Fold these 4 entries.
Entry 1:
Amino acid sequence: MKSLEELKAIRDRVRSSVTMREGNEGNIRVVVGMATCGIAAGARPVLAAFTEEVAKRNLTNVTVTQTGCIGICQYEPVVEVFESDGTKTTYIKMTPEKVPQIVADHLVNGNVVTEYTIGNL
Amino acid sequence: MYRAHVLVCGGTGCTSSGSQQIIDKLESELKDKGLDSEVKVVKTGCFGLCALGPIMIVYPEGCFYSEVKVEDIPEIVEEHLLKGRIVKRLLYTETVAEDQVKSLNDTNFYAKQQRIALRNCGVINPEVIDEYIAVDGYMALGKVLTEMTPKEVIDVIKDSGLRGRGGGGFPTGLKWSFVVDGDQKYVACNADEGDPGAFMDRSVLEGDPHVVLEAMAIAAYAIGANQGYIYVRAEYPIAVKRLQIAIGQAREYGLLGNNIFGTDFCFDIELRLGAGAFVCGEETALMTSIEGHRGEPRPRPPFPAVKGLFGKPTVLNNVETYANIPRIILNGADWFKSIGTEKSKGTKVFALGGKIKNTGLVEVPMGTTLREIVEEIGGGIPNGKKFKAAQTGGPSGGCIPAEHLDVPIDYDNLIAIGSMMGSGGLIVMDEDTCMVDIAKFFLEFTVDESCGKCTPCRVGTKRLYEMLDKITRGQGTLEDLDKMEQLCYYIKENSLCGLGQSAPNPVLSTLRYFRDEYIAHVVDKTCPAGVCKHLMKFTIVADKCKGCTLCARNCPVGAIDGKVKEPHVINQDKCIKCGACIEKCKFGAIIKA
């Protein structure tokens, strides 16, 4: 270790590996429906795409997690985004291809991608 | 990138209840389901709630699974990690409220705790230096080396009011400032935690070994030392292994070694394994042992700050003391001073044990009352029994009776009520505990552990033990009680080191608060708690006995006679008072008095 900057660089690099363990208040939660219906409709690649995209952008305020059946099986894969103020956005018929746009527009810039939401049926 | 972290406790408590097998099973199940690149398994240090081990926390949800078995793992993987359905039946019951999963920090056990020394235990993987760095590890050392003079470091520690956590409570900054000039100086770490029932140092070493290395380097910079020694007992194999890993990683990163952070500061640490003698926790005996001699104390002065290891000026601090240092450097003395009481700053870790529901490690601000620790954090006494006393400070401490439950715990208050902080062992006793027997238990320990160098301790503790033994046999006299008290003061005043000087404390404090129990043993020849076997008699109530022969068949010494369907009788000469008959009797016909 030759300098404090070097240590700080290591810290910043590894920081994201432990932030998940500090509780998720104030965070954005991306919840992927992963019941049988969701998995059958292809929720796993969607979940993987979210995890990958969030990591790529180093979004430490976003957690990606999964849940059971939301009850709208015909629209699976369903992804819900919960923001810290309690607002919920429901995206339906998700594919891995749609993920980068949602991450960029919604999670980073705060603009809901309306065309993929359930309200756009 | 992992979307979930599964933290499994790898402390000694959970390891002995099978956490390693759980980790293995978890890893193989995750692999089978193809989740191993999404879910990370982290083996951490102790979470503190040892009574409920093995413990597992799943993030991001923060689900706290307790008493996990290997058979539960497929369900957790399939339901929770794959499908996202929390396995409610395995959750720690206190975290489930009205079908909602509560945060662990809202449970009684954690709500009143404030973790400074234990802040990383149960959070990071102690075998990976990057995880320690991720939580600001080694930043305090960096700050000290690049921004502060040694004197400024000592001033911050002095100003913080930090006192030694190993038992004595001596102000740490003052200790550092006493180190005299010299060509060679040392820092040392006392990890020879020997009090029966205390395991906080072990947990820090197992859960966060780097914090000790970092703090020792800071101390070394402050006093001008270039070599450190950690004296850890060989009976702590997990702690030893993780320390070795940590030292290796710190050397690799250049956080130990030459020219740390590009400065002139050079420092390295070596481990020394102790064989587990209690006296080696005493500072002069510990240093003698590091030097390779038989662990025996020597008179002070000279104090280690003047003449310590190998005759050179040395700073010796306890593990928990060190664990506070980096945070004080980073957050400042004012932050630390704002926690605790007027003369005892910061927090203290207690090892809760004995007759209490939540056995484990708790860290609370100084000034927390014993009642809060026992009733709220500890969850009270199991089986509806009544609190009788709490023993603090191990064999050097004393018993605190129920009347002092509301005393705010700090160094000075504990001494005022005849006990001491010690290293922080806290053993809770209920109405079934005999206080004479407890005093005898601790004296038996000190008799075993006295090194024998000075007569008051070597012979005095033995005589004291014999008097206690005599009392528990119902052969004591009131005169013995006075003699015992005199002997206690004699041992305290004349022993060479802390071991002997504090060995009579358990006797003195029980005599002070539970003299009536001693008198019951001596005058009435009874043991009110029903513990001392020589003072007990088992008898069969003829009216209640149905003559089922169950007791006679279960008596290991054949002391019960009687014909079928006729009342049985216990032969008092043969009876060893094991209580097997009482347990077996279905009619409540056998009484103990």
Entry 2:
Amino acid sequence: MKNINKILALGLLATFFLSSCGGDGGDKTTSEEVKVVETKEIDPMQDKGIGPITSVDISGKIDDALASEGSILFETKCTACHKMDKRKIGPAMTGVTKRRTPEWIMNMIMNPDEMVKENQLAKQLLMEYMSPMANQSLTESETRAILEFFRQNDI
Amino acid sequence: MKKNILIIGIIGISVLFVSWWGNSNKGALNSSTAEKVYVAPGEHDEYYAFLSGGFSGQLAVHGLPSGRLFKVIPVFSQDAEKAYGYNEETKPMLNTSYGFIPWGDAHHPDISQTNGELDGRWCFINENNTPRIARIDLTTFETAEIIELPNSAGNHSSPYVTDNTEYVVAGTRFAVPVPQRDMPINEYKGNFKGVLSFVGVDQDSGEMDLSFQIMMPGFDYDKAHPGRGKSHGWMFFSTYNVEESHTLLEVNASQRDKDFIAAVNWKKAEEYIKAGKFSTMKTKYAHNVYDEHTQMATTTMESEVRILDPSELPGLVYFLPMPKSPHGCDVDPSGEYIVGSGKLSANVTIHSFTKMIDAIENKKFDGEAYGIPIINFEDALAGVVKQPGLGPLHTEFDNKGNAYTTFFISSEVVKWKLGTWEVLDKKPTYYSPGHLMIPGGNSQKPFGKYMVVLNKITKDRYLPTGPEVCHSAQLYDISGDKMELLSDFPTIGEPHYAAAIPAEIIKNKSKKIYNLEDNHHPHVTKSEKDVKVVRNGNEVHIYMTSIRSHFAPDNIEGVKVGDKVYFHVTNLEQDYDVPHGIAMIGANTSELLIMPGQTETFIWEPKGEGVWPFYCTDFCSALHQEMQGYVRVSPRNSNIKLSWSLDDE
């Protein structure tokens, strides 16, 4: 009986030791945590996000003038954290209009604080990138211009 | 059954006992007092209170009724926490005609007014040691301007705004030779002068301008109060040392039974200025303005001032006799009563503005001093509050016709009635109060709910912290017939005076960020693609940006020993409460604390070869610890080219 107790104690100790010294598992732990939170599957192309934007009309063809205005705004307000073709602080922006609704994109720009707290897709991004999306205090028309720039880029 | 009844009975008695015990332990009175100062977590205070930081040179922003400290606004002293007076942008704010002065002695905050009511545009505060007045912008809660007062020494009776913020004033506490010159001290009498400065305020920009000075006899000008309502257009200054003594003033300036309150008709002064009845004196004083547009302060050295001589200009100044070295000089909200507190007196003496005007019109004078008429004491006297305490200092007013006077020697506040002069209530203070403050209590519209008493001596009121202890403010509820002490709270420096305003008037105007588009700093970098490092001889200028959570660039090479390296850092964030800091190992300045949309600059002069780190000092995100970078420093004769990068790009 005594022996069994000893073995048990050793076993516990070993588990503790192994888990506390498992140094390089940082990335793994993060991705595991992400999985835990993924409770239900959502279709990103149905999710409009949370914020001031409830619908965006993108039926017309690309407005080049608006897109070039958006390009300038993107350069000054966004490039500290985002590149088009490569992950920087946040995700690469190329293809964003293929994986997110226009409403979600605009709400993420205009209302990031609430989005990363309440919207599941945004929450997952925060967990992946660990740096919160910065609120750059852009107006609705500025944000719409940036969306047009993304649309033009994704043709 | 009997058993059950017994048990129920015991439970009942226990419940009664517990509830009685609970109540008596709390104390009904204590709980209501605590509730009056309790501001629940996340809720806001009712009032902003601006407490002078005294010999710290700064201005503290507290909330009332909680007493919580929100911010220390750097004004007259360098502040390494916020880089005020250390960074290149704000260094000029501390320039004076004596050169750069890193410290000042702040005294009396006063909030701007319109029609005699607090309007919350600006808060002014005076500096006593190197005579200056500062203007704090109440949208940014930052010092926007500092003007120096030439010919003045010990700027104590200041700033005290008029009904429409036409002027802030500055009376000299110490008489001096004007202009300054080498002369024997014991020839003071008749030769030294006391100058009263009137500083105009531009109603749109708030910018101050030294409009004129009145060359008065060499008395000590101690406190001031603008006329209100019916007495608008007048300014009242208390004086002591009309004996014109130059030594052991403690004895020699207390010889005469009465000193004066100088009543200055500044509307008359404006007429004389318009009529050209002034002389122009060559002088030197600094005028420092912080431009929010360029985010830079600049100093202009001014060289002239207009002087009015009251002995030659009838109707400009009159003297009202006031017993026993008056200190406080306070005008009630109606503008009728001028309350003088002889600090060596047991009484409070009140003059009537109406009677004063009548005495002037009917020439009821009792001689003159240096050509200035002395009004007959009895002919201006409205009344006396008889022996309410010892050593009266300052008086503020509520909105119900009552006055509140501090008594330094007997350590109490006395509430008395204007007009009947009867004492209504007395409460002890802990200990030895100087000023007191009722929000709006020096204006036409006081908010008579709270009173803050600013004590000079603290002793045993808080946990001891060695020989030096904090200064102590005390909050009283004055809404009822009797004053009620609610709480003690500690303050910075020595809070000579304070000003408070209902939070609704200013809180929604408080800026959250600086718009990057409006940033016209000469060294701004508005996008990461524009970052650069430029060499100009041995000067190296780093145009850097910060955003959560990296600097761009974060690797810099090609700097050499002997270089003077300027870090011009722009915070690209446009979100509320996301400042970034930056500190460089071995830099002999301070950190920078840069608000969103702002650009600030510090200088680093590397003394040794090596690779030297810098980092963000203000915790900005989960990856704040990663917000760091390196500068490579090579020998003086090195050929390493200047280069910079972020993520090796």
Entry 3:
Amino acid sequence: MESTVMIKGSKSGIILVLDEKLEFSKLQTDVAKKIKESAKFLGKTHIALQFQGRTLSDEEVQTLIKIIEDNSRLKIACVIEDNEKQEEKFKKNLDQALSKMNDNSGQFYKGNLRSGQVLESESSIVVIGDVNAGAKVVSKGNIIIIGNLKGNVFAGAGGNKRAFVLALGMQPIQIRIADFIARAPDKEETKGIFKDKASLFYRKKSKKSVQDLSSNEMKIAFVDGEKIMIEPLNKDVLNEIKF
Amino acid sequence: MGEVIVVTSGKGGVGKTTTTANVGTGLAKLGKKVVLIDTDIGLRNLDVVMGLENRIVYNLVDVIEGNCRIKQALIKDKRLDTLYLLPSAQTKDKSAVNPEQMKKLAEQLKDEFDYIIMDCPAGIEQGFQNAIAGADSALVVTTPEVSAVRDADRIIGLLDANEMKQIHLIVNRLRNQMVKDNNMLSSDDVVEILGVDLIGVVPDDEQIIVSTNNGEPLVGTEALAGQAYMNICRRLLGEEVELLDLNGKKGLFSKIGNLFKKN
């Protein structure tokens, strides 16, 4: 007959491996028996206890503790919960739910993000306001900024290459989409550096190196091949967006 | 009931203490009862700028610790009867005071003074937290440099997070010629980045250095910076004052030219 109760000892406590299907009343007697058998070996001490192999209600845990204490000279100092499996399950389910959510839902944030402020979101995010230099927006989905983008953005933080960044004023210090990083070009040595905010992001088709990113036209950043591209937003580009 | 104003910037050396001294003196000249509090414990210098160093007996930490009454620590200005200074301690550090204590102190001073102006230390640590604790509004000082603007942005974010109701911006040490040559951010550029109300632009002025060294704030004098600070004071009192023409001294010909333009 296979044992329905097993005791595993560790340095500071014991692990009770219980049969999953056995009726609880039967399990109680089995536990009592097993503990009685090992009582001498276990000795008289305070221990930590952990249950494995079976999900127990609080009541059942209390009952089992009482049985153990009655049948041996052990004192149970605490019960360690066996959460690992559950945690894994939780995480898996959560991740699944979130990745689904990312695709077609989002979140709004109104107000300016200033240097040092970080906005993180599991879903796509729409910022109504400016993202100033030194501020950061991180999203597992898309990032849309109705305002000037002068800080850092990280779209598709979970690894989604199809994520995109939209901004009214596109002058970011750095854009990250999934595993790709693009940074603002180093300022060229020209007179009046502050007036000439022209940037050097590559344009998709014409491969023109310089385009004025500060003009007040909605622009989109997305991954094309192995590069992050920035283009003015128009119908063609919109049609290409897939997520 | 008085108003507590904190003068802050994040970055050091942009002119917090100079602004505190000049705005405080200006408000006093306009007939308000003003107290300046130096919250930069350990690096005291507002008293030097005000030329009151030799009068210090008690300081901020003495008041907080109960070694003396507030009245005993307040130093009356040597020029104006309605202006007082509460100097900071030089021998302690920022941790000698906590925000609650500063709040309480500000509340006590509100009964007696129209304006309580806090000179904030550079940085965003405890000293900053102390200075903004009891404040009703903030004067954020920045120079037209990207580093100073970046820090000012951070400061404004922190002030927002602390629910500061009113934030005014002062662009300090602007050099008009450099702005014209496109080598310096203009005050408009700074306002665009920071997105808060501009209350004044102070030109870079050698006279400021002279006045600081002499311990005599130049607010209200003929110097351009002096006029600019006076305008800031007027705006704080709710007056509508136009921005100063920063083109400075003009030749006779341009003056004549301007006369014709007006007509």
Entry 4:
Amino acid sequence: MTSGRTARPPAHHLRALTVTAAITVISLLVIAGGLTIGTRPLAPQAVMSALFTPDGKIDSILVWTLRLPRSLAAFVGGAGLAVSGYLMQTLTRNPLAGPELTGVSAGAVAPIVFCFVFLPWLSSALYPFIGMAGGLAGASATFWIARGGRGRPLHLALGGISVSLFLGAITTYVLLLSGPQVPSLLFWLSGGFQGRSWPQLAYMAPWVIVGVAGALACHRVLDLLALSEQAAAGMGLRLAFWKSAVLFLSVLPVAGVAPVAGPVAFVGLATPHIVRLLRPGSPAWSIALTVALGGLMTASADIIARSVAAPKEIPVGIITALIGGPVFIYLVQRRDGARAGGL
Amino acid sequence: MTAATQASQRAASGWLVLAFAGMAVLSLALATFLGVVDLPPSDVIAALAGHGSSEARSIILDIRLPRVVTGILAGIHFAVAGLLLQTITRNPLADPSLMGISQGAMLAVSGFLVFTVYVHDPGSNTLQALPLGWLPVIGTIGGMLAGGFIYAIAFRRDLGPLRITLCGIAVGAVLHAIGIGMIAGWGSARIEVLLEWFSGSLYARNWQHVVFLLPFTVAGLAILPLVRRPLALLRFEATVARSFGLSYRRQFSLALLIACVLAASAVGVVGPVVFVGLIVPHLARFIAGRRFDLVLPLTIALGAISVTLGDLVGRLLGQAEEIPIGVITAVCGVPVLVALLRRTA
């Protein structure tokens, strides 16, 4: 396989590199542009001066503690969710896999809501671990129901949606019991980056970075898994170990992002498909592109969410659902999907 | 098969239907006699007969009875809609909440509430009466629109049953995300009203809800005998069904329309009670065995029984803080669903 990789023309890498770099630059531009937008619009010069010579006045506070960390958090969160979706789709070779339709998001959210309401003394530093356990449990339940997700994609989707419906009913009931905390919990549940600043960013970044780094580290395994299980096993891959390892890696970013931003809908599902349209060539480039694109989508969605109805906030989940949902529906009803998606 | 065994089988079928009708009546009685407020049976009977204390009368006639009847009608709606969807999509796992209908109703209701409250008074978003009386109508329209949208995609592209189901899931997921987001963005203190509705609840349902549902129930059940043969044929592949002389598209559309109307109106009134539409038809098929003509009556009876008993359990377990019926059906329904999925995967 290594010979195949090196034999590939360098032009291919060059193209992938260019696309990735372009998306990263666009993301930076979007984030920079987002700094000027808000309830109190800032002129580009004002943003520049606040950015490079912070002076503690309102403008630099706006930029440094409100808008910049928030946009970065959205970027990191989106990147994490997108990578998670990519890993799941590769693992199951199923176009519908993603944090939403495999029960991972619901599995991460339900126990966190439960702890928030019934065990308020529990430190919120534990929430990523709780989300992790819940997400893994949700994913395992779904995969168990769908017999590994390798059967018909419908079963994975139905299994995931059933697990999500079940956990959702329980979450709603816990919300009903929680009384006054409902509005804040609900905003979190619909996914949002309102008021997220450096601490929250620092809090979820390690999870996302470990997930992405892990995915990059085992990009060869992903390449083999994308072929077929038999081929991977024939190449000497220890399937039982690597499959659970990839599943674990795919839940990591969700576990980090969910406690901070809630389940941001459809980023994890739609991004890998858009990346596939860009034909990155190798899994390593796919991951890089997925990171850049997921981040770009979520950061832009977040800027839209906070500026469209300012001073009120729209949950970012609405925006990502509006962007990602049509992509998803297009994928499902596409007629040649039988070839491309294995439906 | 001899005439004698045929006759005895018919008699057995008759007894089975009678037994389940009896069970439905029994669950109705149980749900009326039992409740958070302990009323002695004699008082209940007196209240039903039209005398007795005014307190007992109001508990029985204005609170318990309309609630139970709403539950029965909604249960029938969900179960029959599930049976129809499972038949026409040839998918044993179709259900109103898996096909986007519930989520459409949910989005319509949340959008409606946000809109009316905003338009009425953009400043404060809390302390006024919510136009709750409109919820059933709005929910029904929303569910129908979602069903119509899925139908439009499905037919423009001539999709097979599998893809229709996937489209339903996709549309449902998108609508759900938008609906939840809308509610959260609204951030009202009256959110618990909506939450209760979202989890599927029979709390405080009155005779108006019964009056709203009843025409749909009657119309839906009246049409069903007319589409019995097409339904039997829709079970087959499109080509096979056509070769039997079935105008596939028309009958498919009609069945889908009935299912949408039944499901959407029920969701509009009681909220998305998940899994009833999924599980009940399977139970009915299991009990009916090879007597196919029994499936529909059994589905109707079991739909009524399951929602009535589920609601009763929720009321008795939760006492004053009752557990919404949707939570009960989700908890009871998942094991059955998992078993089904594992068997068919």
